[in-house]
Design goal:
The complex is a heterodimer. Chain A has nine helices and 19 strands. Chain A is α+β, with helices and mostly antiparallel strands. The chains are: A alpha+beta, B alpha/beta.
């Protein structure tokens, strides 16, 4: 049922607005983490994000790395002072904190729903195990009442300054949440933002037909096996299958199960006419498998303008009919770079390798727990449903962590993240796939920025660093889940002392 | 009057066992029978270069050729009317080998008309066990690759990647066709030339193909009458002599979906045609004044210049630049407007335009047009002609 504004509500809202605006500009007391930064928490975070940088976990490798020892992943900046981690704190609201006071006012007025929408982090200094993080929050802004797809509510923005036990600045966070009145969304209701109920039955894709000469291939797909015909005498692989070896004319064959890895050989993106069984943009690719045969397949998880012939792909699956499974291909998860990307290897406009991330239930739950986020919508499906969501949703710290991990996979162990700014769109629910894509949007050579960059110069001659800016999008089946930009400090490369022949 | 009397022969026969339940697909039966006929003759099956079929044969020659590993077919025909065509397959094969159209021609029939779909039950819906030709679309259609433009798009992307061709290069074909059509009162697009900018602004149909890369859909008909040299006298028109005519299928041939060859940027079946046309006509690219090249989709016109030797592989984009294929250029192409500009009558209107060029009656007459190249469908089992003003 739509919430309707009455005269009384209008008066109440205007009083609420005044109370809210009175909080803007207020600074809270310093909050100190109850526990220091520690190895087990860092490792749990790395496990959840599939982060592979040894600077975060491996004592020996970290000692030889850019920081001279283990550091916490930068994207963990705000997790050490999450509400349940504050010294002497409780899970409840601390009205000494202006943002909590604002949340309480909004809760009382019925704006009980909350989603994080933006997180802009900048890193001054890397946290190390043993560091005790403190945070001081300023409520920097509250928007006028807004109608969004999610509902009617207010954007609340805070600026948080983080310091270590020596009082040295370690980083800052600009954080925005949307507090809304549940049930006032534009989309009639039950679905999450960005979904619309679709009650018209969709026609099925054209049904593949087969006879006994190819049935084994389709039975394989049903079992999520990509089977390629192999003539047993010659060992020749043929796809699509035939009945006789085209050279020896032997009719004795079996099959091999393909690794599912290959690369894009060619593609087309049909636009007109649109067939109702398909989602557009639709990409049909010609995939050359590692085994040497080609097959036509959909390429998913990458928009047409990011396709590149030769890009590595991996198989995934689509149950297209009650009794038919089709192979699909998506960008292969990139191998973590050996060594570190250098400035000399980067040009503005370069695409980053697309990367699909399976949003499993484990990832959502473990990601929330590893970032000390105990809000029920991140681990409890019943609680999520009670709040109008179809399922649990990924928390913003996990989204940040996954973006940071992907950037690190691309840039390598020695790259240093200087800032990470993200905005959230549609939610990440379990069972979906989020594909990261992005490109280099800026590059500054030879500049040294802050002590985060300074720590890179420990292994590279002073000044022989630069910074690149990348912008990115992580999209799932509902649309854009996360978008934003990041700055990374990279070694110069061309003049770097560590450059290899 | 049957000309080649006692000059051709059946030299091999092969068969499977005859049963009520073969347990194998018709494609396997066809393959086994063809291999057996070759073995009986003592012929390497890859030397077969002709296939003679009669209608209701559902094992198409390109599928049998994939199984036999045949590198090229120069002759293939389908005689109509089912069982009545059996001996006609031999008649066609005999004419082919007698004229040199092919060296070795296989004729065959294979099916499971008892165990799969009983022939005697008549027409009752579609069959539970699809045959090879039905199966072939299963490798593409479930993925949304459904239309000829989409099939062509896959080739186009690879061609662009490999040779640096661009959408504008494709557009130059359309611009030339439409310029010629603009001057042709019989063309659908009479008086409506396009610019390259208009081509670039036309909507994407299947990336990288744009609307103006695709031929029209047309209603219409074209017919041609052919006779022999001794009967040319006494008719009303100057003859357009068939200096050469040829068919072509290349290795691993599919219908517009030959995606599994080592290289997919060429049209090797067109190469089989080209080789025969030049050899039997005694002519070459430099003897041709104008060409009617099959243009259902512009990206598949470019490799035709390469297969016929008008330019080197991958260099068609340079060959067609600067108006070289328009009136006044080195090789005006599709002077009727082609299928993009005049009408899409599956290439038969291109043959008619070739005849008009030989007669000197084209609306876009090329000076001194004495030899005209005409091609048929690209990306499919195909054929070509050289028409000439000079008879034997």
């Amino acid at each position: 049922m739509l919430w309707r504004m009455t005269g009384d509500d209008a008066v109440a809202d205007s009083a609420l607005d005044a109370s809210l605006q009175a909080l803007v500009g207020r600074q809270g007391t310093v909050q100190v983490a109850g526990d220091p930064v520690d190895g087990p928490a860092i490792r749990a975070w790395c496990d959840a994000m599939s982060e592979g940088n040894p600077s975060f976990t491996d004592e020996a490798a970290a000692a030889a790395g850019p920081h001279g020892g283990i550091v916490a992943p930068p994207a963990t900046l705000n997790m050490w002072t999450m509400p349940d981690r504050i010294e002497g704190g409780t899970a409840g609201r601390d009205t000494d904190q202006p943002q909590h006071a604002a949340y309480q006012l909004l809760d009382d007025a019925g704006f009980t729903g909350v989603v994080a929408t933006n997180s802009d982090q900048a890193y001054e200094r890397h946290l190390r195990p043993g560091d005790v993080v403190s945070a001081q929050t300023t409520l920097s802004g509250i928007s006028p009442q807004k109608q969004t797809a999610l509902g009617i509510g207010y954007f609340v923005t805070t600026e948080v300054a983080y310091a270590n036990q020596q009082g040295e600045a370690v980083g800052s966070l600009s954080f925005r949440v949307f507090k809304f009145r549940p049930g006032t969304g534009r989309s009639r209701g039950d679905g999450p933002a960005g979904t619309t109920p679709d009650d018209s039955p969709r026609p099925e894709r054209p049904r593949p037909r087969w006879n006994q000469d190819q049935a084994w291939h389709w039975e394989g797909l049903r079992q999520r096996e990509l089977r390629i015909q192999r003539f047993t005498g010659s060992g020749r692989l043929v796809h699509p299958p035939v009945v006789a070896d085209p050279v020896t004319h032997s009719m004795d064959y079996d099959w091999v199960v393909a690794t599912g890895r290959g690369f894009l050989y060619s593609w087309t993106a049909p636009e007109h006419p649109k067939a109702p069984a398909f989602d557009y943009p639709l990409v049909v690719g010609l995939v050359e498998l590692e085994e040497g045969v080609r097959m036509v397949s959909n390429i998913v998880g990458v928009p047409p303008d990011q396709l590149e012939i030769g890009m590595p792909l991996e198989v995934c699956w689509l149950d297209s009919h009650d009794d038919v499974t089709l192979h699909q291909f998506r960008p292969a998860r990139i191998e973590r770079r050996e060594g570190t990307l250098t400035m000399g290897e980067v040009t503005v406009g370069d695409p980053l390798p697309p990367c699909p991330i399976d949003v499993t239930r484990d990832l959502v739950v473990l990601g929330a727990l590893a970032t000390f986020d105990q809000q029920d919508v991140h681990h409890d499906r019943d609680a999520a449903r009670a709040k109008g969501l179809p399922d649990i949703i990924m928390n913003i710290l996990t989204s940040s962590g996954l973006v940071a991990r992907w950037l690190g996979d691309w840039a390598g162990d020695g790259a240093v993240l200087r800032s990470l700014r993200i905005g959230l769109g549609v939610p990440n629910h379990p069972g979906d796939v989020m594909t990261m894509t992005g490109s280099v949007t800026g590059s500054v050579a030879g500049s040294v920025m802050g002590s985060a960059a300074g720590s890179v110069t420990g292994s590279v001659e002073t000044g022989e660093v630069g910074a690149v800016t990348v912008s990115f999008v992580g999209a799932n089946s509902l649309g854009s889940h996360v978008h934003g930009s990041a700055e990374l400090v990279l070694p110069e490369g061309r003049r770097g002392a560590g450059e290899n022949a | 009057m049957w000309t080649p009397a006692r000059q051709t022969a059946i030299v091999g026969i092969g068969a499977t066992e005859f049963s009520k339940d073969s347990g194998r697909t018709p494609m396997q039966l066809a393959t086994e029978a063809c291999l057996a006929a070759c073995a009986d003759a003592g012929l390497d099956p890859t030397l077969v270069d002709g296939m003679s079929l009669f209608s209701m044969e559902r094992n198409h020659e390109i599928e049998v050729a994939r199984n036999l590993g045949i590198p090229r077919l120069r002759f293939f025909s389908m005689v109509n009317h089912g069982g009545g065509g059996g001996c006609a397959t031999v008649a066609m094969a005999a004419m082919a080998v007698h004229t040199g159209a092919a060296d070795y021609v296989l004729a065959y029939r294979a099916f499971n008309e008892r165990s799969w779909h009983r022939f005697g039950s008549g027409v009752q819906g579609h069959h539970a066990s699809p045959e090879a030709n039905d199966v072939s679309f299963s490798w593409t259609s479930p993925f949304g690759l459904l239309t000829p433009a989409q099939w062509a798009g896959m080739f186009a992307t690879r061609y662009m990647h490999q040779y640096g061709a661009t959408s504008e290069d494709f557009g130059r074909i359309a611009v030339a066709d439409r310029r010629h059509a603009a001057n042709n009162p019989a063309a659908f697009f009479h008086g409506r030339p396009i610019t390259l900018e208009e081509h670039q602004a036309s909507r994407i149909i299947s990336d990288p193909l744009r609307l103006l890369d695709c031929c029209q859909e047309s209603d219409g008909g074209v017919a041609l009458l052919v006779t022999s040299a001794e009967r040319v006298q006494g008719l009303d028109q100057e003859p357009a002599w068939v200096a050469a005519a040829a068919q072509g299928v290349a290795a691993d041939q599919w219908m517009m979906r030959s995606y599994y060859r080592d290289d997919i940027t060429g049209l090797p079946e067109m190469g089989v045609v080209a080789e025969q046309l030049w050899e039997s006509s005694g002519l070459g690219p430099s003897d041709i004044q104008t060409a009617m090249l099959y243009d259902h989709f512009t990206p598949l016109v470019l490799p035709q210049f390469e297969e016929f030797g008008f330019c080197a592989t991958g260099e068609a984009r340079d060959f067609i630049a600067d108006g070289n294929i328009e009136m006044g250029g080195g090789l005006p192409v599709n002077t009727n407007g082609g299928q993009l500009g005049e009408a899409y009558i599956h290439g038969m209107n291109g043959i008619a335009e070739g005849v008009r060029q030989i007669r000197g009656t084209s609306v876009n007459q090329v000076d001194g047009a004495t030899n005209v190249l005409v091609t048929s469908g690209s990306g499919v089992p195909t054929s070509g002609l050289v028409l000439s003003a000079e008879g034997a």
